[in-house]
Structure formats: C-alpha cells, structure tokens
Description:
By secondary structure, the chain is of the alpha/beta class. Helix content is about 30%, strand content about 15%.
Amino acid sequence: MVKRFFSAFRAMLKSLLGHTWLLPSPSLSSSVSPPSAFMALFGAQKDKAEMRIHENLDELRTDLADYIAQLSEMSVKERGVFAIALSGGSLIGLMGKLCEAPYNKTVDWAKWYIFWADERVVGKSHADSNYKLAKDGLLSKVPIVPSHVHSINDSVSAEQAASDYEFVIRQLVRTRVINVSEINDCPKFDLILLGMGPDGHVASLFPNHSVLDENNEWVTFLTDSPKPPPERITFTLPVINSASNVAVVVTGGSKSEAVHLALDDVGPACPSLPARMVRPTKGKLVWFLEKAASSKLDSAQFSE
C-alpha cells in the first residue's frame, strides 16, 4: 500500500516538476507550507530543517535575499533591531541581491547590527578578512550605520580577540540589541548565516577539532585552523544553536558529499560533521542548496 502511494506520488511530482526532484522554495511571505509528504521523504535528521533546493545560483540568490529581508522586517517590527551574524567564503556574494532594488530601498538598514560568526585574525584590509569581504561586497553598498558594525579587534592575539568579541556581545545582550535565549544565557541572534566547506565545517568549527567541545564560552579561538589562515575566532555551537534563525547556504558539486553526510540518515558509524551539529534548540533552520550541492542527498534517487 505504502509503495503504491509513493509510486503515485512520485508520478504526480514528475508531471509537475519535470524529471527532477526539487523541494519547492516558497517565499517566507507565503502562508503556504510545503506538503508534509515532501519533508517525510528526506529522513528524520531533516525533520526540523527546511530545505530549499534551487536549479541555479540566480534563483538561490533571489530566494536568500527574500528570506533575509523578510526576517529583517519581522525582527524590526518585534524588537526594533535586526542582529545578524555573517560568515565568509562565497556567502557574501550570494547575498548580493540585497544591494539591488527593491531591497536596497525597502530594507530598514539603519536597524541592522552586524556581527561575524567567525573571523580570521588578520588586518581588516587583508585579503583573508571576512570583514573586508563583507565590506566590499555588501556593507559599503547599503546604508548600514557604521557604529552598528561589530568587527573583531585584529591587533591582539586570537585568544584576546575572542575574549574581546564576547565582551562586546555580552554588553549588547545586556541592552537587548541582541536578544537572550530563554533556555540558557546565550545570545539569541535574529539570524546567523553560515556557509559550509567540503569537509563539513561551518563558521570556524572544523571536524574533530577541540572547538566543537567548547560549551562555556560564546566565542572561542583557534591557532591551528586546518584551513589557512591558522588564527581565527568563532562562535561556539551553543551560540549558533541558540539563534532565532540559522541559514546554511551551500553551492557546488564539490560539497555534495558533505551535504549528504550532514543531512541524510547515515547511521551512527559515520563521523558527525560540524554542519550536522547545527540544530537550533528553539529556532528555525533553513538549508539553501544549489542543485549540484544537493545531488547526493538520498532524495536524489527520485531524479532521472
């Protein structure tokens, strides 16, 4: 009976979507949620995550801009501010549509407070700086209030930079620029945006690294990052998982295996990737995937 149901369901999807299995990616402004049958086929690990799989990068960029703008609007209405933490890599480029119409005019940029989920301990003008990447690709193109941009102190050691950054965040939690979690004392960012590396790392949380076990600090540091540069600061998993919203944005076929290991039910024998540990306690998790990055998901068996 169940097999007949899914055979019929699959046939219906093919007639609607052609011969490619795609999870629909409705705008957040839509009041219609994806049918539960879509999510049921993606396994238990993904029960609490929404996946938006896109045919191409342009579609992903548009959907990501819609998503961020919608969360900004909701947060400003509810709290008067929008506290967002960025990452580096290709993420900033994928946020580029926010610099264009209509977002550059409709988003309340003056209410944004910018943070970094991780940063390389290098000068702000250094090519490896996540701050420089965000400034060049986004912050210099929209009317962000300069005093609302909270970058790290790059003139000290990685350990001191992490401590200083946590102090800044604690001060802003006290004034409720950043909300506080209802279940622990962690900051509750309105949105944390993450990319993912081919090894499954997010922020600067790398597989099998001791930073994954840090549960007491909000911000920790590395001096031995497996990916250069070696000195970095990063949000810890408790902070990431305390956010109201977390989005993981992944593109490219080189990351498809890591996406599979992060999202599919791969069994207890498989090493747990940092990306798999991103599970907001009370917040919402959305994975934005370009089609090539999603190609090894178990759901790919429905593609022809």
